[in-house]
Amino acid sequence: MFDTPIVTTARSVKSLLERLQADSLITVGRSFYYSVCLRDTGSNFVRKRLNGEIYKLVPDLALSKDTYEPHIVAWLKQWLKPGDSFWDIGANWGLISLPAATIVGTSGRVIAVEPSPSNLAWLKRHIALNQCETIVTVLEAAVCEQHGGSVSFSLLNDGRSPSNSLMFSSSVNGESPEVSQQINVPAISLDSLLAEQGRSPKVVKIDVEGAEFKVLKGATKLLNSDSAPILVLAVHPFWQATPDDCQEMVNLLKGAGYQILNRQGSRVEALEYDEYLCLPSNS
């Protein structure tokens, strides 16, 4: 066989392909496709498997992992049932609200609360793309100990981040990340949300980047009621107001009759950087 430029090039390409693993080629191909061929138009989407379920998501999430907080989703499957109410405090892009909506179904209710305008845009798109509008209600607000008025909210990466927080505009226990912008957002408390909704949730997920004690202080009626909800609580000690906040949260929860479990199911008396399942006495 004659060596021509085409043959030489083909042999070089063949040799390169043989040296690369198939998984690497697939990854490179997908990366090229999603970054070049599937740019976000504001209305298009990708079908993405997430924790075993298929969802329609914004193209930017096409290359994300196939799991997202799987232990939290497992807790939702364990404790929620059709017809229940679920509150997602710090809903971010809706990746917990979506499986919750699937579980509670059309007879249930999901309240998704998120203050960041950029995150809200994706949250609302995901709800619409997955046809959950009749189940999920979106509230643009920050949950804290006060109801009414506004609070200063810090945005990272212009707001499209899971780490936006109420805490970065004031002194915190640890070092704050670099803030790109501060905005004023409506303030609500869980007790006021309960009064407005007229129905206690079965489960409340709280993931608010250091402001979790603020949220709990605004929920004393809810937590001490006969229908106190199960809490899925994400704790961020390094962004809390004081080093004592974790112990104060433990005291508040235990005073309301809660037991606090880690993701392995063991009872704990102290909180660290992790997610916890908090069970009321009525569970």
Compose a concise summary of this entry.
With 283 residues, the chain is of the alpha/beta class. It contains 9 helices and 12 strands. The strands form 3 sheets. Strands 5-4-3-9-10-12-11 form a 7-stranded mixed β-sheet, with helices on both faces. A 3-stranded mixed β-sheet has the order 6-8-7. A two-stranded antiparallel ribbon has the order 1-2.
Description:
Pfam families: Methyltransf_21 (PF05050). GO terms for molecular function: methyltransferase activity. The chain is of the alpha/beta class and 283 residues long. It has a single domain, classed as Vaccinia Virus protein VP39 (Rossmann fold, 3-Layer(aba) Sandwich). It has nine helices and twelve strands. It has helices spanning 5-19, 22-37, 70-79, 97-104, 117-129, 190-197, 212-217, 220-223, 245-255; strands at 46-50, 53-57, 85-89, 109-113, 136-139, 142-143, 150-155, 181-188, 203-206, 230-235, 259-261, 274-279. The strands form three sheets. Strands 5-4-3-9-10-12-11 form a seven-stranded mixed β-sheet, sandwiched between helices.
